[in-house]
Amino acid sequence: MTQYDIYILKIDEEFKNLIPPLLTNERKQLEENILQDGCREPLSVWNKTILDGHNRYEICTRQQIPFKIVHIFLRSREEAIAWICANQLGRRNLTDESRRYLIGKRYTMEKIIGAHNAVGTNQYTRKEVRPKMLAEPLFEETAYRTSERLGKEYRISHGTVDKYGTYANAIDSLSRVDPELAPKILSGQIKISQENILELSRLSPSDIRSVSAELLKGDVGYSDTRNIVPKRQRAKKQEYPSLPESSVKNMPEYDPDTEILSLVFTIPSWISSIERTRATADFEEISGSARQRFVFELNRLQSTVDSVLSMVKEGE
Fold first, then answer.
1. Distance from chain centroid for Cα 2
2. Higher-confidence residue: 89 or 113?
3. Which of 26, 113, 262, 274 is the most buried (most CB within 10 A)?
4. Which residues contact 59 (CB under 8 A, 6 or more apart)?
């Protein structure tokens, strides 16, 4: 069998989407180089799945050109995603949006990896290697160490790393609703502030798709997107039935504390639910997949809380 016949590799769409696509002229030049000189750079592979080299693999398989691979040893899917992010961050032609996203995505994955390492778990074991429950202070300490380490590596503050994590989570949320939107944002074709991206990700799926349709009409700048999300939010409020006239007259003036106070009354129920889970769940018996999802969602909650706390402090 030839080298070409042996290496039939898998393509993971999530992995592939982490890699900024080549421009048309870049892809054309790559194909011309491979046709002339062969595939000189090996493909990076984990568990027969491509981590780096998707374009080279497509060209080589289509043109039946042999290629080499290098096996990357990783213990989990989170490590694979973090590896891809770190590898892509070495590229010089990244947009600012892609760079923020990749740092944030790597941070999110490495927080999960750190949490797993802290309790001695990985994706291949359903029980803990060391019987130790992941306490909240331990998770916070792991997250802080991760943000500090990445902050030093990319020469930004640990707080900025955390904000990028929130940004990456918002982009992922948008991708799940409308897969066409995120690539346009990350490529810089749609200019939208980080604040508006977070606001957009909190809308209902139908509203996200509606806003996305407006954004995807053409190249959009910051001035065009600045009011799209607030307009959608105002339109949503107007959909609710009007109160009877007598009720409207009796309503107090607008109170800026209303939204905050409604959340203040809701948060204790979240805390109660989490505390009840800590008291009743057997953390030594839960499956690896359930543990992974639980840690991921706690991580998202913490990032959101940190982001809101930052906004509150800025308003002081």
1. 39
2. 89
3. 113
4. 30, 31, 34, 39, 65
